Amino acid sequence: MKSLVLHHERCTGCSLCELICGLAHFKENNPKKSAIHIERKFPVPGAFEVHVCNQCGRCKEVCPTEAIIERDGVYLIDPGKCTFCGICIDECPLDVLFTHKDLSYPIKCDLCGECIQVCTPEAIHWSK
Amino acid sequence: MYGYGGKVIRIDLTKKKIEKKELDPSLAKEWLGGRGFIAKILYDEIPQGTDPLSPENKLIIATGPLSGTFWPSAAKIVFGTKSPLTGGYGDSNLGGFLMAELKFAGYDMIVLEGASREPLYLYIDDDTLELRDANPYWGKGALVTEVELKREIGEAFQIAAIGPAGENRVRYANINHEYGRQSGRCGMGAVMGSKGLKAIAVHGTRGISLYDPDGLIQITKAALQHITHQPYFKRFRLYGTTDITDWCQGMGVLPTKNFMFGDYEKEEKLAPEPMRKRILVRDKACFACPLNCANYTFSKKYGTYIDGPEYETIGMLGSNLLLDDIEEVQYLNTLCDDYGMDTIAFGGTVAFTMECIEKGILKQSDLDGIDLRFGNFEAIQTILKKIAYQEGIGKILAEGSKAMAERLGQKSEHFAIQVKGLDFSAYECRGAPAMLLSFMTSDIGAQHTRSWAIVQDMDMGRDSIEGRAKLVKELQTLRPLMEMFGVCRFPWLEVKLDFGEYVKAFNAVTGLGYSKEKLFQISEKVWNLTRAFWVREMKDFGRKYDLPPGRVYEPMPSGPAKGLHLTEEKVNRMLDEYYEFRGWDQNGIPTEAKLRELGLEQVAEDLRKMNKI
């Protein structure tokens, strides 16, 4: 099964991954609506860390409304069934279920791979 | 309107009044954004003769329609004002993330006027706009302020701050953001300080509406493919602007010892590869940029982190002051950023002062006992602090090299390396006539980014002036569009992304359907308006304001450019041709016909009433 491989040390913090994620999923030029998030550790030590779901499936286990389904190893949120209770967000081991004030469900990576296409420093790629 | 945030913030700092206004659609259609907005508002709203450091001056902070969008390096915001350093039109762009954040909060532009007696900072969080107490930050460095303000209000905020140099109105004080990026030139920080504004903090959560999102995605993905397949891509993303240091040395255009020479015997110690090995922490990018030209560095020797030094700083604080240790340059870069001072103007002013000492025009006793010789690192640190706090001799250096030369006389203007009061960026031009003409005719003074023509100079014959006027005029028409769109020039300049792709992106974002020709016409209109601003503000404005310092007439004494120099005849011939291409008279004043052709009828009326045309 495919998965994302992250090389945090190659990330330059450009936000192109966050931008394309928002555009691909919400047709909106808004990196704040992204399932991938770059953490900026500046001025000290001067580093970036990429945060994105690794499809562990913990969210599905804890969801009380069965709003999260698994398809070919990818966990997807059904906004129609989600009550935005926040349990999956709290339970996520990597803290990679993100929220935006316009949305009444968490934003979660669906492994579409759009971010890989625009990551010019090759900080994100598919596992071999 | 697609591509625009749709709102403008107007603030009167005297009255502490904040207004939110709709963006005027005709302003967007006719002036695009960024420096187009700034030129229009400065000309229309600042009364003739306004003192740049008075409450009547305005500080305008403008994004463009592409700022913050999914387009390579859509990462520019422009600050503009009547410059306290030059007295004329001033603008200076800034990379990083501020432009995107402001658009995501829904705003295209901030216009500041008036002055507060109490230090304030501007807080923007989507719809919430507040002027907040900045007493806890006043007196602190720009870098420290960014750290502490984020700690107080949140890491998600983007901050632009001034340091003590801005608070104390040093005429080349700048505005800092993102730990080492600046709106660096023309004294933006002094104007912000004169208004009692310490910082601007922005957070936004909204999207930017696009006319054709799918079209933009397609154009941008193709652009990214193009960029990553260019042979220069890999090298530029490693070294950024520092990559040019070796090239400048090889061509004899690296400013050395106040531009006396064009090469530096110890340049290899400042060169890009050793610098990367010695101090690089991280390759870093501005918003949406595939090129990540920033070198985020750490000096073990001094314990300082900074985004830099860039080439310009290496030239102006390294070779031009005869400092050969990249960690010393990195440290001075960090100090300049924290005090909030332009490294180019600081380097130029200090080098000028050092030459005054060598020539006996100034004595050590005139300099509060500071032994300000070329290469004296300790003395440079001492004078930097004195300038930032306007102490003793620092008050004189804080006025800039042109003002110093006027004060000192004794033909010191010959080696005050500036045009219109703005110090040269780091290019020695005796063997680079197009670069020199670019500095001479740039509408803010001797800044390199208006038309960076030095590479073409090498191909066109270094002792010839043929074709230079046309080249410079063409570059000055295309290049400023980048700062009207709100994007960085580097994908176009460094990895040859065709300008036609920018036109496609502009239209996919805005839906305005403009042709390249239409955009060039708008750019020319902006250039003529900024020229008219100078004509209006300077009683005796004309050709003499476009002339370079006398040093360019001295033959280069040694190195790769040995023997090269300009003559007054050549300089004037370049100006003759340049004015001709511009449709200006032979004193460099826009003609009535040209102004009317560009739709600047009111400007033509104004200048006519003043007997300028």
Topology:
The complex is a heterodimer of chains A (128) and B (613).
Chain A: E1 4-6, H1 16-26, E2 37-41, E3 47-51, H2 58-62, E4 68-71, E5 74-77, H3 87-91, H4 114-118, E6 124-126
Antiparallel strand pairs in A: 1-6, 2-3, 4-5
Chain B: E1 7-12, E2 17-22, H1 25-31, H2 35-45, E3 59-63, E4 77-82, E5 89-94, H3 98-104, E6 107-113, E7 120-125, E8 128-133, H4 142-153, E9 158-161, H5 164-167, E10 175-177, E11 181-183, H6 188-194, E12 197-203, H7 213-228, H8 233-239, H9 244-251, H10 272-279, E13 280-284, E14 294-299, E15 304-307, H11 311-318, H12 326-339, H13 343-358, H14 377-388, H15 394-397, H16 401-408, E16 418-419, E17 422-423, H17 433-441, H18 454-460, H19 468-485, H20 490-495, H21 499-510, H22 516-537, H23 568-582, H24 592-597, H25 601-609
Parallel strand pairs in B: 1-6, 7-12
Antiparallel strand pairs in B: 1-2, 3-4, 3-6, 4-5, 7-8, 9-10, 9-12, 10-11, 13-14, 14-15, 16-17
Helix pairs in contact in B: 2-22, 7-21, 11-12, 11-13, 12-14, 17-19, 19-22, 19-23
What does this protein look like?
The complex is a heterodimer of chains A (about 130) and B (about 625). Chain A contains four helices and six strands, in the order E-H-E-E-H-E-E-H-H-E. With about 130 residues, chain A is of the alpha+beta class. Chain A folds into two domains: about 1-50 and about 110-130, Alpha-Beta Plaits (2-Layer Sandwich), CATH 3.30.70.20; about 55-95, Alpha-Beta Plaits (2-Layer Sandwich), CATH 3.30.70. Chain A has a two-stranded antiparallel ribbon with strand order 1-6. Chain A has a two-stranded antiparallel ribbon with strand order 2-3. In chain A, strand 4 and strand 5 (about 75) form a beta hairpin. The longest helix of chain A is centred in the N-terminal third of the chain and has 11 residues, at about 15-25. Chain A is globular and about 40 Å long. The mean pLDDT of chain A is about 95. Chain B folds into three domains: about 5-205, Aldehyde ferredoxin oxidoreductase, N-terminal domain (Aldehyde Ferredoxin Oxidoreductase,  A, domain 1, 4-Layer Sandwich), CATH 3.60.9.10; about 235-420, Orthogonal Bundle (Aldehyde Ferredoxin Oxidoreductase Protein, subunit A, domain 2); about 430-495 and about 515-610, Aldehyde Ferredoxin Oxidoreductase Protein, subunit A, domain 3, CATH 1.10.599.10. In chain B, the strands form four sheets. In chain B, strands 2-1-6-3-4-5 form a six-stranded mixed beta sheet. A six-stranded mixed beta sheet of chain B has the order 8-7-12-9-10-11. In chain B, helix 12 (about 325-340) packs parallel to helix 14 (about 375-390) and helix 19 packs across helix 22 (about 515-535). The model of chain B has no long low-confidence stretch (mean pLDDT about 100). The interface of A and B includes residues 46 and 100 of A.
